[in-house]
Design brief:
There is one protein chain. This protein has 309 residues and is an alpha/beta fold. Helix content is 40%, strand content 15%. The protein has 11 helices and 7 strands. Strands 1-2-3-4-7-5-6 form a 7-stranded mixed sheet. Helix 2 crosses helix 9, helix 2 crosses helix 11 and helix 9 runs antiparallel to helix 11. The longest helix is centred in the C-terminal third of the chain and has 24 residues. One of its GO terms (cellular component) is intercellular bridge. InterPro entries: Beta_tubulin (IPR002453), Tub_FtsZ_C (IPR008280), Tubulin (IPR000217), Tubulin/FtsZ-like_C (IPR037103), Tubulin/FtsZ_2-layer-sand-dom (IPR018316), Tubulin/FtsZ_GTPase_sf (IPR036525), Tubulin_C (IPR023123), Tubulin_FtsZ_GTPase (IPR003008). GO terms for molecular function: GTP binding; GTPase activity; metal ion binding; structural constituent of cytoskeleton.
């Protein structure tokens, strides 16, 4: 399910969950951003939607409007990036769902994704990334290796959520590659990345997963899509919660909701649930000892030793 959190909340998610209890419900949820969204009640809708997703979804891919906007304007160097936002988001969604649509050397369905990517029941929000992201004019002249592709996939500039992944550890990571490539090389580089990174939760076994599809995306010879469960995603919720608190304290635009029959307690309950979620992410971050290392998963230029066999 693809939807915008700022444009309206999702009570139908619970209805669908009750109607189809044996189905996996994954969502691509676009969070509001002041740069793109013009909805004054976006924080209300976002908090209500996140509250529903916590209780009813099995996995949520968080896409912040601010991050694709920055990618289009800075990395892709588009003077008017609004027309390219949907293209960028659709490329990421296509990468995530690759294994559902094409055969490959290794495949991962929704059940495997929900099982491997959600180590704790309520921490079901993923931060996707996509590579390569280069200027349109120079794309045809660049031939990326597996090492460079992995480097870009974990670069903070390629993440589809406007938060810094270096501010939290990775609980689980999934990488989906599209092209005919050596899976032995992919597995070796991902394993070395995990061993040499100070941002991975090393006490969780098998928390790095890989999948591959032989069919490349249209217009590209090779691509990679990352799906990450990271503690840094609480920054997104914190930013929305701060705006929600300011508005709710003043009862701003609250009559729009009470006029439609909503009780004020529903907003209070949603606020409490999201705050508890943020506290759980923080608690998990505090209790996850990380290996100290001079190398970093998210450096712009990784030392070659991270990828050596």
């Amino acid at each position: 399910m693809a939807h915008s959190l700022g444009g309206g909340w999702v009570p139908f998610c619970s209805v669908r969950c009750r109607k189809y209890p044996d189905r996996i419900i994954n969502t691509f949820s676009v969070l509001p951003s002041p740069k793109v969204s013009d909805s004054v009640v976006g924080p209300y809708n976002a908090i209500l939607s996140i509250h529903q997703l916590i209780e009813n979804a099995h996995g949520t891919f968080c896409i912040d409007n601010k991050a694709p906007y920055n990618i289009c304007s800075r990395t892709l160097q588009r003077p008017t990036p609004y027309g390219d936002l949907n293209h960028l988001v659709s490329a990421t969604m296509s990468g995530v769902t690759t294994c559902l649509r094409f055969p490959g050397q290794l495949n991962a369905d929704l059940h495997k994704l929900a099982k491997n990517m959600v180590p704790f029941p309520r921490l079901l929000f993923f931060m996707p990334s996509f590579a390569p992201l280069t200027n349109w004019g120079s794309r045809q002249y660049q031939a990326l290796t597996v090492v460079e592709l992995i480097q870009q996939m974990f670069d903070a500039k390629n993440v589809m959520a406007a938060c810094d992944p270096r501010h939290g550890c990775y609980l689980t990571v999934a990488a989906i590659f599209r092209d005919s490539m050596s899976m032995k090389e992919v597995d070796e580089q991902m394993l070395n990345l995990q061993k040499n990174s100070s941002h991975c939760a090393h006490q969780l076994p098998h928390n790095v997963q890989t999948a591959a599809c032989d069919t490349p995306p249209k217009g590209l010879e090779i691509s990679a899509t990352g799906i990450n469960t990271t503690m840094a995603i609480r920054e997104l919720f914190k930013r929305i919660m701060e705006k929600f608190t300011v508005m709710f304290r003043c009862k701003a635009f609250l009559h729009w909701y009470t006029y439609e029959g909503m009780d004020e307690m529903e907003l209070i309950e949603a606020e409490s649930n999201v705050k508890n979620l943020m506290a759980e992410y923080q608690q998990c971050q505090d209790t996850m000892p990380r290996r100290r290392s001079s190398s970093s998963l998210l450096r712009r230029r990784w030392p070659r030793s991270c990828f050596s066999g």
